[in-house]
Amino acid sequence: MATISQSSRRLRADANAEIVPTPRAQSVIELIGNTPLLEITRLTEGLLRPGVRIFAKLEGFNPGGSVKDRPARKMIEIGLARGELRPGKVILDSTSGNTGIALAMVGAALGYPVELVMAANVSRERKKVIEAFGAKPIYSDPLEGSDGAIRLCRKLIEADPGRYFKPDQYNNEANPLAHFETTGPEIWRQTGGAVTHFVAGIGTSGTVMGAGRFLKSRNPGVKVIAVEPDDPMHGLEGLKHMASSIVPGIYREAELDDKIPVSTEDAYEMVYALGQFEGLLVGQSSGAAMVAALKIARSLREGAVVTVFCDFGDKYLSTNLWIGWQEWRREHLQRLIRKWNVSASATT
């Protein structure tokens, strides 16, 4: 077990570059992006070949708390530049939560009212954060999930089209463009161009499409892998089971090298494991991304697998994600360790 002093020595040894003070920001919007990249080490110890590493982009460090800050900023910037968003307009979109929070934050920073359509069963924490930014929540049928929110949002705009500016995260090319311009370059820079596999969950698909395109533009050999729930009736808030969902207009499956299905149970267990082994409290989509990243990494002889942890887990503490936590801690931690160790031994 590494001590804090040992970890500090490693950090000092790696920190050869000059530390540049962070410039002052005049708006919270300027703080979006440039999130840290963390190597996952304790959870993977003994499971990977020596030349294989897994890194996670910690998007919870964005000011709105998620990866969705990036496309929210870009969609609003382009809307303003085109004159589609102007004084008197209301920002309206459908969301599973994080994009709504990001739009509420950006709208508050720019002085625009925001209304957000979301399934009534999104986490209590997300609802409260959205309201704290001054946005108006509009709730759709919880049984219809994010697709129900999409349909209700369309009805609202059809009823009064002149009132709203709809960023339309599922169909707006500014969404993947945000990741092409920021997330992808950051990953390339932070890995020194060594990334070989990029793994990201599919919600709107903006992250995997945009960052994947940039990484392939720098190295066509980079593999881009999407992660989705393995079942239509899943519990992975923020992710889409594409075969049973309204497919986002920005999604281009032909650009993917692979798509990995992950079960709700495995994703939840990975969330618990990341907390126990890495000291990272993340959401369920991040758990799913880590399950897929580990699966890819264990198949490699060498390589650098980069995945995206879309947000931290503080917005999910009241959800079903944590119902089984105590039972898992008591009964399944050692079983999970044994399962991974046996699987790892069988591949070496």
Molecular structure report:
This protein has 348 residues and is α/β, with parallel strands linked by helices. The chain has two domains: 32-65 and 182-338, Rossmann fold, CATH 3.40.50.1100; 69-165, Rossmann fold. 41% of the residues lie in helices and 16% in strands. It is built from eleven helices and ten strands. Strand 4, helix 4 (124-132) and strand 5 (136-140) form a beta-alpha-beta unit. The chain starts with a helix and ends with a helix. The model is unreliable at 1-19 and 344-348 (pLDDT under 50).
Characterize this entry briefly.
With 348 residues, the protein is of the alpha/beta class.
The CATH topology of the largest domain corresponds to: Rossmann fold
Largest sheet, spatial ordering of strands = 1-2-10-7-8-9
Count of runs of 4 or more consecutive helical residues? 11
Mean pLDDT: 88
Structural class: alpha/beta
SSE order and pairing:
Layout: H1 4-14, E1 37-39, E2 51-58, H2 69-81, E3 90-94, H3 98-110, E4 114-119, H4 124-132, E5 136-140, H5 145-159, E6 164-165, H6 174-190, E7 197-201, H7 206-218, E8 223-229, E9 258-262, H8 264-278, H9 284-298, E10 302-309, H10 325-331, H11 333-346
Parallel strand pairs: 2-10, 3-4, 3-6, 4-5, 7-8, 7-10, 8-9
Antiparallel strand pairs: 1-2
Helix pairs in contact: 2-3, 2-6, 3-4, 6-7, 8-9
